[in-house]
Structure formats: C-alpha cells, structure tokens
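[job 0417] fold request received: Uronyl 2-sulfotransferase-like
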Amino acid sequence: MKSAATVSVPLLVICFFAGMWTTGVYYNYYTEAVNEGIPAPQMKWSHSQVRITPQEGLDVWARRNHSYSDVTKVLYNRLPKCGSNTMKVLIRELQTRNRFQFFEDKDYGIKALPKKLLREFVKMVDQLPRPSIYEKHIYYVDFQKFGLQQPAYINLVRDPLERRISGYYYMRFGRIEGNQKQKRTHEEKSQTFDDCVLNDLWECDEFGPKTFTMTQFFCGQESICMEPSQMAVETAKENIRRHYAVVGVLEEFSSFLKVLEGVMPQFFRGAHDTWREIESKQMEHQKTAIKIPPSEKAREIMRQRLHLDYQVYDFIKERFHMQKTQLGIED
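[job 0417] inference complete; emitting structure tokens
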C-alpha cells in the first residue's frame, strides 16, 4: 500500500503547475477586468424549490434529464465583460462551504492556444484535484480530441452591444475602484464610442476582431473559429447544445444562479443567497469609471456589425429560458 507521502507528491506537482499557469507563466497580451451590469438579487431562495420536469431531447440540456449531480470538474471559459469578475468572487465564497477547489487563471490574453500549449492545458486541467472549478478567458476546448474526459462547461453572456460598449470604455478608463494600467493612447481615450462606430475605427470595424468575440468563445480553437462566418456561428451553437450545462444571460443573473443551484448543487448550493449578501459592494466596485452613452444611430450601426454574435446570443437566451421553464424558475 502506498504511503500518504507517496500519494501526495503527484498532487503537489499538479497543484504547482496549475498555480504556475494561473499566475501567468504564458505571455499575457492584455487584461480585461469586468464591468458588471448585473441586476439586483430578488428575495431569499433555495435550490430545493426547483421543480424538475423530465425531458428526453438534447437541445436544451447537454445531458438527458439535466443530470449533473455526478459532475466533479467544471470549466468556466468566461467571456469578458459579462459579469465574470463577480462570478469569481461568488465562487470563492462557495468553495469552502461546498467543499471544492477553485483555480483561477491569471493569463487574460491568450484565448486561442498553439497546439503544444493546448495539449499542456488540457492535461493540466484534467489532472486537477476533484471536485474543482477552473476558470479562464479561453475559447472552447474539446478535451475528447486529446482522449480526455470533457469537463462540464458553464458560461455567462450579455447583450453583445452592451458588452461591446462596456469593453470599449473599460479599455480606456478602467473601473471606479482599481489601478489597472490603461490600454489606449491619449488620442484613443478622447474618442467616444460614437466616434469609433461612425468613423469605422479598428475597434468598431465591421470585419474587425471585436465583432464576433462571443461567437469565438463558443466556437473553439479550430481555424474556422478565427474568422467571422456563419459556419463559426453554427459550430458555436452546436458546442453549446452538446457541451455546456448552463449558459446564462447577465440580464437575468438571479435566474442564472438558481439554474446552477438546481442542476449542480454540489458546487452552487447557496449561490443565490450568497450573491444577495455581497451584491451591493460588488456592483459598486465593478463599474467602469467613465462610460458615455452612445447615440441611437451608433447603436443601430453596431448592432448590425455584431450580427453574428447576436445569433449566438439569441440562441443562448432561448435555450436558457427553456431551461428555466423546465426547472420551474419563473423570475
């Protein structure tokens, strides 16, 4: 029989490399913290209130009858500017109560990994202790292509235009509280979102990298996901349908927490009420320092440019509403 010391060595090695990854061993191109547009929580709630309605199809749940009680590893490939910073705070609060480990990745820049790093990444995540949640700004990864078990995916999205506006001003002015280094020149900081859209600047260009970010996060690491196309949209939808336990919408954050509690209470039991306790402080901390409301003309133009992301967003929203209905969650 192996001694306790012998058994603990591999675990220590795994945790060491996980820590190295999360503290930014790989080059960090840029960081994006989060401006939360989260509505206030409602009355006290318990996951025991969930009423499960059996269903057979795979269009709403990645597993039949939404059975995730045996899940021991969750990957939250968090989309920037969609409440993920608040989700991290919440998961930190829950990890002790619900007895799991939470691993936070500090590399916010590299979302599409070269093949060698991708192989190292999936191996590292696969070897993390269970039960655990791992978070990272990264496009969807298919672990099965590497012969490894797929973790249960979750994510949270936001209206694409609101997400884009939030990101635009955050990269110029940061948050109200925080000393983030700004990512734009003095000239760029003076340009409003209207200036960006109406003058077709690179951050608002119809064919630029910012117009299908949401699509990329769910499409994945394949070459088809690196350029805006309808094929990328359909791939993203299929990945959501087959591999994501829950993808919530920020505008219904309270319901998102209730759905998580209902399908994976081993991780998210008490999430909604914990959020009620910390929400006022978090919402104040995460606001972008300066955000100028754009004109309706700029909004309409940008909505058109974000048409791929809106297809994915609308698909997610419809699926999420069906999940809520099947769980008997009404708010």
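[job 0417] notes: DSSP finds 13 helices and five strands in the chain. The CA atoms of residues 91 and 102 lie 7 Å apart.
[job 0417] exit 0
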